[in-house]
Automatic annotation (TrEMBL), chain A:
Residue intervals of the OB domain: 142-227
Transmembrane regions listed in the UniProt entry: 634-653
Assembly mode: Heterotrimer of RPA1, RPA2 and RPA3 (canonical replication protein A complex).
Protein name: Replication protein A subunit
From TrEMBL, chain B:
SUPFAM superfamilies from the UniProt entry: Nucleic acid-binding proteins
Entry keyword annotation includes Nucleus: yes
Protein name: Replication protein A 14 kDa subunit B-like
Subcellular location: Nucleus
Amino acid sequence: MNLTEGAIAKITSGGATAAELKPTLQVTELKQVHTKQPQQSDRFRLVLSDGSHLQQAMLGTQINHLVKDGNLRPCSVVQLIQYTCTTVQGRINFTGSWHFYASWSAYQQPSPMYSNTGQVAKNDAPPRLMPISALNPYQGRWTIKARVTAKGELRHYNNPRGNGKVFSFDLLDSDGGEIKVTCFNAVADQFYHQIEAGKVYLISRGNLKPAQKNFNHLRNDLEVFLESTSIVQPCFEDDSVIPRQQFNFRSISEVEGMDNNNVVDIIGMVSSITPAASIMRKNGTETQKRTLQLKDMSGRSVEFTLWGSFCNAEGQRLQNMCDSGGFPVLAVKSGRVSDFNGKAVGTISTSQLFIDTDFPEARRLKEWFEKEGRNVPSLSISREMSSVGRADVPKTISQLKDERLGTSETPDWVTVNATVIFIKADNFCYTACPLMSGDRPCNKKVKNNGDGKWRCEKCDQSMDECDYRYILQFQIQDHTSITWVTAFQESGEDLNFSKYEKQDDESFSKIVRQVLFSKSVFKLKVKEETFSDEQRVKSTVVRAEKANYSSQSKFLLDMMEKFKSGNSAPVASNTESTYPNSGANSIGIESSGRPCGPLGSNQGGNKGYIARKFGSLPCEVGQHGNQYSTETNIALGFLHLLFLVTAVVLLAIPQQIALVS
Amino acid sequence: MDTSKPAIFVNGGLLPMHVQKRVRIVIQVLGSDRGAVIGKSTDDHQLTVKGTPPSVPLTNFVEVIGIADSEKSIQAEIWTNFGDTFDTYSYNQLCQLANGEYQLLFL
């Protein structure tokens, strides 16, 4: 569709009339003219362009409604059906009907043709409405008409430059443009009570500045800063044209590819939700959090965390809905992507949650869920938050040292299959603070005050009685290497250390003997710590489980398969480190019968032998630096397998029946 | 530890390869029949174990070490109770490996 070029010249020169020429023109300006007599209806003055000339015009009052409805606006392309041209100052009067071709396309900057006419007067009062997306810092006067989608709190802040208050809110206009508006100090006070979320306002005379991306997650490079001279007018009409909220939903599979700290809108079905839990933040304050799983049509699910107030308000509501068997649809505006445990999304202060609202996407999601989603398992892009999942990387002890685990910023969580070979008998417990801090006991070491009381530094209290908690230090060893670990009360109990009740040396040694040489799967938290100028990697036992020979055998069989088929590098290196050349220690312990073949005949005696050899020696088993060939490496692993299988025998109390035939 | 009489890990399918040799096998006890114990190997072959079972009652899985006197029977010398559960899959794999590539490791 093209503008009828030259039409204006024709009309103004008297060369054409309304009957002959019905030109297509574009409205470049539209202003309301204030009439002196209040009874008279509003008059609108416009400027029309035909692509080469501009012409002033007055709108016939019969079609004033077009402006009032918002249909006729700057940039509208119109076809004149009925018009008259009077040469009073060369204006054209339009009456009659209009056709519209388009009410908006992207707003064009006033064309350089403006200088041709010079008739356009600068106008103070009438608003020059523009879409938010057209705002630019060089725009003289601008007015936007938009709805408040989010209203922030009146925040007080304190920074080196002083203290003050700030208040901001987000606007959305009918074209989907969004922008954030901020006010400081007195201006904040001025507007805070005027602005209501969900209402439409006309805003003008604000300052446009580049947006601060770390506070502003809207898709606009600019932000508006209001001054005391800014105008904020509530708008009572046109309510339906401007949407209430605008989302840019991404599917969960897209979230998987996003960077950390990206802000995103997502929508999904809540498939599960956990109760609220207290979490200690890095700065020491406590906050509440809840996690839930969101599923969507991409077949993926993601873990979504509700922090702080979201946890309580929306979180509780969601929990109730889920508990009663429902699957609510949750839409999130401005959630932050984090790469904790795979990819997860969490709320931030500017997030907004919408539960079971009637968006088209929500409806689609509900339909998909009813039809298929309910039964289709989705792939989670977040790793499970249980401690099992977190430490499911099986490692050998030598890998702990080789790969320098624990030396990075965060502690590493690993799993090792190893045997307890030595338990340190002194300092196996400490006096602990029994007071509750949140929902967990403090457990910090308490000091004897000297007057029979125990003092806890953290809780800042004294008490008569304190808890005794295990702090066990022992060595664990697998076929590769040996290391010291520490276990506290809970993990100690995992290992069959019963609750410490009274001092009883005999039963203590009995327990120790029982635990010694038991094989377990240890989940360790490995972290490097500094002890008086010395960097040391400390491993703490988070959980200990009895070794499951069956699954371990399968694991090893798998590894052997992969090793045999000369599989890809990662596996090879895994096997490499699992069967290192120099780790020969464990062989001595595991199969004391080596290298003499199968552990056949003397099973009953085996265990006793080991115990006798290592039982009471508080020594660290040294490394034998032998060189072994690859074949023997396989042998090592193989014997490990063999050991596992025959260890079943050791577990089941063997009835040694030797028949002399 | 007495290693003068090594026994080869076998299952039902591998037993025929080692007739007249000393073998060891884990079987699931199905029943006893005229002084012999009928058992099922980890790869579902039915086998007979001759010899005197121990006075202690046998559990579900038993390991038997002895001379294989035919493709389907063993003259047992040593009986060991392995309990009521046993990972037959892993044991089978072990037998395969012990008789295959890694034979040398075991004898």
